From TrEMBL:
Name of protein: Helix-turn-helix transcriptional regulator
One function term, GO molecular function aspect: DNA binding
PANTHER family referenced in this protein's UniProt entry, alphabetically: BLL4672 PROTEIN-RELATED (PTHR35010), BLL5781 PROTEIN (PTHR35010:SF4)
Matching SUPFAM superfamilies: lambda repressor-like DNA-binding domains
CDD domains for this protein: HTH_XRE
Domain of life: Bacteria
Region ranges (Disordered): 252-271
Organism (species): Nonomuraea montanisoli
HTH cro/C1-type domain boundaries: 11-65
PROSITE patterns: HTH_CROC1
Any single Pfam family the record assigns to this protein: HTH_31
Length: 271
């Protein structure tokens, strides 16, 4: 395995990814542009506080901040504890509480790569009828949603959904610098480009995801919840994806169980 580039090169890469000049970064971080230049070219080795300060103003994810610290010759400081570890019990309990609170609406927890970690029983609306191979852990929800053998064939407005989620995934890949997300984006694009999607209905408040499920058409709007001020890598990277009914008919179906899933049930772990 090849060694990481020097810390200056890594910082320059993040600055360019954020489309900032050296002067922009210097002003935000409260240092001179000359100092930023010297750090990037390797003429100055930044202190650990300086690495962390520049990383903070560049919005570098915690996982990558550890990489910057190591490249500068310092020990990593951000831990990466599994969600099922004792130290993460409070966070996991909070996530499970959020999932319970969303029932009978579908809600699930994903990691930074869209792999499914937890789900409530109502999330079966997205898991029902997909190819068994796609349900082998880790279950990737982006892949599950856009794969021809996933629930994509049941998405009524698939072209609109693709035109929204594919650019979102591309931006995430660019923002995080994660090669896995870039590869996932290329894979999903290969299933069919967004094309000329119909513009959203001006009467809508958000782009609905319309799914055929057991003889009914359900419409959802999507929300995302993340932890603020997280200092653990796992906690920073998890997100709750909740799907709220976009019309009264969907709300009634979910409340009554007419969607084919129970109104409440156990939260499940997907590893």
């Amino acid at each position: 395995m090849s060694a990481d580039p020097p810390v200056g090169e890594l910082l320059r890469e993040w600055r360019r990814r954020r489309r900032l000049s050296q002067l922009d970064l210097a002003i935000q971080a409260g240092v001179s542009s000359r100092h930023v230049s010297f750090v990037e070219t390797g003429r100055t080795m930044p202190s650990r506080p300086m690495v962390l300060r520049l990383a903070e103003h560049l919005g570098v994810p915690l996982r990558e901040r550890n990489r910057l610290l190591v490249a500068a010759g310092y020990a990593p400081i951000f831990q990466n504890r599994p969600l099922d570890s004792a130290d993460m019990a409070a966070a996991r309990e909070a996530l499970e509480g959020i999932l319970r609170g969303h029932e009978p609406n579908p809600a699930l927890v994903v990691d930074r790569r869209w792999n499914l970690l937890l789900a409530n029983s109502a999330a079966d609306v997205f898991l029902d009828g997909v190819a068994p191979a796609l349900l082998e852990p880790p279950v990737n929800m982006m892949r599950l949603g856009l794969h021809p053998d996933g629930f994509a064939p049941r998405v009524v407005n698939l072209e609109q959904v693709r035109s929204y989620f594919l650019p979102r995934l591309a931006r995430q890949a660019m923002r995080t610098g994660d090669p896995y997300l870039s590869e996932l984006h290329e894979e999903l694009v290969a299933y069919g480009p967004p094309g000329d999607a119909a513009p959203p209905d001006p009467a809508e408040i958000a782009l609905p995801i319309r799914v055929r499920h057991r003889g009914a058409e359900l419409a959802f709007i999507n929300t995302i919840t993340t932890f603020g001020a997280a200092f653990d890598i796992t906690l920073e990277e998890v997100a709750v994806e909740a799907y709220l009914p976009a019309d009264p008919a969907t709300a009634r179906a979910l409340r009554s169980g007419d969607d084919g899933a129970p109104a409440t049930g156990d939260r499940r772990t997907w590893r």
